[in-house]
């Protein structure tokens, strides 16, 4: 059933969303429900088609998607995918078009995107988001944004539609200020995911009731909501549909390791975590929630 959208705010921008995976689809849907004119494109068109029921126009190419856009929102898998899509779209964009880059692309990937924006006279806003499937669907993401002061008002209806909070950071978008912060936050998220997975795997191996572990830390300094959320997915067999897929988590872990190397920082836990995710992917858990790191603790044979 299609939900009724609200009237668009006066002067609300037309938005093109490139990439309709877990995050992009939810963001496009919420933008349309907020009354904005939204056109979406995805490399696999069948993943974008369901958005038509929410009033989103589906485009066959990136160039078609951005033809009438005031704002282009990219939520693609990685830097190369984003560069390819925007490379195809950018020649048809007028100089000064706002480009909101919300994928996790790493430092090198972001630099390539910034160069493309500069080449075509686009105004790049570095705006990765915090949150997974549920907050994305509920329009409750946190947007980490870096960009020119004079574009903030124009982007307010866009960010208000997809998130409950926007954190504007000091520093120019071209320096990747928000991307750098997102990598730091993701390093923590992935480490906690692995910690939860390994603790439960060890409990199984030692014959310990996992509820005893969770009860022992409950309410104390070692407790956290994230532990219970991921433990619940593992113990309850709720790894699909994923809040954040294991294959994507592996990609992000490798971006974190690469960023650390550039900064002269050894990311030993992130590097080991990337290999755990890889083993889980190889065992067939790539499309499951990243809590499937749990399965990397056991011999696949």
User: How many helical elements?
Assistant: 12
Tell me which CATH architecture of the largest domain applies here.
3-Layer(aba) Sandwich
Write down the overall mean pLDDT. 95
Total individual domains: 2
Shape: globular
What is the count of β-strands?
Answer: 9
Helix and strand composition category: alpha/beta
Could you give the order of the helices and strands? EHEHEHEHEHEEHEHEHHHHH
Please name the defining characteristics of this protein.
301 residues; Rossmann fold; 12 helices
Task: Describe this protein's structure.
This protein has twelve helices and nine strands. The chain has 301 residues and is an alpha/beta fold. It has two domains: 15-175, Rossmann fold; 180-297, N-(1-d-carboxylethyl)-l-norvaline Dehydrogenase, domain 2 (Orthogonal Bundle), CATH 1.10.1040. The N and C termini lie far apart (45 Å). The relative contact order is 0.10.
């Amino acid at each position: 059933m299609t939900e009724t959208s609200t009237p668009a705010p006066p002067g609300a921008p037309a938005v093109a969303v490139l990439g309709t995976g877990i995050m992009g689809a939810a963001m496009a849907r919420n933008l349309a429900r907020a009354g904005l004119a939204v056109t979406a494109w995805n490399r696999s068109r069948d993943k974008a088609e369901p958005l038509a029921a929410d009033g989103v126009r589906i485009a066959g190419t990136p160039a078609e998607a951005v033809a009438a856009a005031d704002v282009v929102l990219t939520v693609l898998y990685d830097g190369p995918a984003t560069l390819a899509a925007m490379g195809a779209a950018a020649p048809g964009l007028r100089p000064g078009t706002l480009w909101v880059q919300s994928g996790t692309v790493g430092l090198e990937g972001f630099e390539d995107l910034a160069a493309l924006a500069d080449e075509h006279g686009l105004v790049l806003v570095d705006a990765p988001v915090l949150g997974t499937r549920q907050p994305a669907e509920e329009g409750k993401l946190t947007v980490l944004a870096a960009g020119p002061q004079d574009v903030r008002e124009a982007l307010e209806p866009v960010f208000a539609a997809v998130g409950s909070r926007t954190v504007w950071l000091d520093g120019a978008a071209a320096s990747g200020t928000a991307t750098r912060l997102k990598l730091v936050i993701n390093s923590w998220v992935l480490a906690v995911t692995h910690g939860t997975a390994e603790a439960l795997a060890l409990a199984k191996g030692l014959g310990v009731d996992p509820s005893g572990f969770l009860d022992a830390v409950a309410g104390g300094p070692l407790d956290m909501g994230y532990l219970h959320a991921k433990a619940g997915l593992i113990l309850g067999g709720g790894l699909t549909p994923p809040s954040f897929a294991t294959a994507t988590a592996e990609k992000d872990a490798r971006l974190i390791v690469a960023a650390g190397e550039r900064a002269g920082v050894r990311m030993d836990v992130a590097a080991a975590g990337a290999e755990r995710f890889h083993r889980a992917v190889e065992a067939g858990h790539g499309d499951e929630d990243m809590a499937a790191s749990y399965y990397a603790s056991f011999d696949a044979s």
